[in-house]
Amino acid sequence: MIANRWVQELSKIDFVTSTGLYILPDQLILVRLRKNFRRVSLLVQEARELPENDGKQGISELTGWIPEDVREIALSATNESRERALRQALLSLMPHVHRGKDSFYICVPQDQAIIQEIYLPKAAEANLKEVLDYEIERYIPFRRDDVYYDFLPGAKKGDKIGVFVFAIPKRNLATVLEVLSSFGIKPKSVETTATALANYILFCAPDTAAATIIGAHDNKLELVGIQRNAATWKPSPELIFSHCLKEPKWDQGIERDLLKLCVTKAGRIYGWGDVEEIVQSTDGGSFEHEDLVAIGNQKIKGGNISQTSVLPAIGAALRGIREAPFAGNVLSGDVSLASGTGVLSYVNAALAAILVLATLAWGLTYPIKDELRLRQLQRENRKLEPSVEALRREEEQLVRARKEKDFFSQLDEHRGEVLRVLDELSKIVPNNAYLSNLRYRSGGLEVQGSAENASGLIPVLERSPVFENVGFNAPSNRGRDNRETFSLKADLEKPKEKATKQ
């Protein structure tokens, strides 16, 4: 488990900046994050007010018309006023953004989107996007071409798979995207506070297995539940529920039961916004919860978070520094359970290249080391060659000396036989025969020489009591001097054993 976490932490090393923009009806919240290695810092947190004007009523007072008669004119005036306010607010925020370097991510409240949990057959799991493209109009009150939508796989229920659908009407984002485009900014993604705050929790409290996030603002309540499966090599988070309640009444109604049900689904509860003022339990007391701002100040360096409305913007900006497990994006409809899954950052690519090169270099060191060792041994061998050669010469001399010693030892042992053979030959060999070479071996004799009649020597030697089995060792040849050269062999006659007495 420790090695698993170490590998995951290593894969997130980076040096990047990211910008998150949280768009409220009356306010813009912008944050800018920077990651140096594994340290995440909050560089910028800025808020801009967006005045809300009722254009319809103003035109009615000026013209005397009833509001219904100028509905289209009022709507157009409202849109122009909204665009003008957005442009002015974004213009004042541009000095805090590096447009050519930063990735830009947008977050909107849940009440600006439609979040629907649906269940589909397991057979649809392999091609969820195609199935939802065909079925989405059954679950939302808009035409498919009128919305941006995204989806996230949820928990399985029996033979069904859960899917969370996030849909935002295109007209709600048209003004924002147009104004950002005029500043040369193309957002990487647009998501809701459900996924943004889930990413914030998973980053600030990475050991959280299950949690309920309760957020309250503008008399609205957002409930988000997440859980993480830690049994796999790479823990994959899941969205359990996501609800947005408007003007809840906690003393009665379904809102109280829904809140109580959501709270019981998770062991840890996190709160942000006006939770203490809005959320009341059935017995009149407040829910015990952990403050999201406090845990964020412990995890994120560079400055304290100024207000709770900054949190969704931080959660959106975490996508740009690859610290967001949930990666919802209604602009593309492309679902991925992990931000940047399958894509390496430049830093990770460089580290991977260095690792590959180091591995190759490490592998190449073996033949190089072997070659170096071989050369070193050869040098040492060359230094020892004179000594080895001297030892070899001494060994050869020793071998020759041993052979000579053995020969003289054997000669000493058989000197009686040698003298007897020489004495016998000197007696029986005729005067007309000459011996040129005599070789004596234990039990045998070989003689070479010349005689007038070589064959006559055989019976002479056979009659001797010293020799037996006399014969030619090689053919004899007669020379010009009418003498035959011969080579004879003979065995020494062994003394006969005395007959044993009967």
Question: What's a concise summary of this model?
Answer:
With 502 residues, this protein is an alpha+beta fold. It has helices at residues 2-11, 55-63, 71-93, 128-135, 170-182, 193-204, 254-264, 275-278, 292-299, 310-317, 346-413, 415-428, 457-462; strands at 14-24, 27-37, 39-49, 103-108, 114-121, 147-157, 160-169, 189-192, 210-217, 220-229, 236-246, 268-273, 290-291, 434-441, 444-451, 467-478, 484-492.
What do these coordinates show?
The protein is of the alpha+beta class and 502 residues long. Helices cover 39% and strands 29% of the residues. The protein is built from 13 helices and 17 strands. Strand 12, helix 8 and strand 13 form a beta-alpha-beta unit. The chain is rod-shaped, with a radius of gyration of 53 Å.
Highlighted features:
17 strands; rod-shaped; five-stranded mixed sheet; 13 helices; Gyrase A, domain 2; 2 domains; alpha+beta; 502 residues; Nucleotidyltransferase, domain 5
Set out the fold topology.
Layout: H1 2-11, E1 14-24, E2 27-37, E3 39-49, H2 55-63, H3 71-93, E4 103-108, E5 114-121, H4 128-135, E6 147-157, E7 160-169, H5 170-182, E8 189-192, H6 193-204, E9 210-217, E10 220-229, E11 236-246, H7 254-264, E12 268-273, H8 275-278, E13 290-291, H9 292-299, H10 310-317, H11 346-413, H12 415-428, E14 434-441, E15 444-451, H13 457-462, E16 467-478, E17 484-492
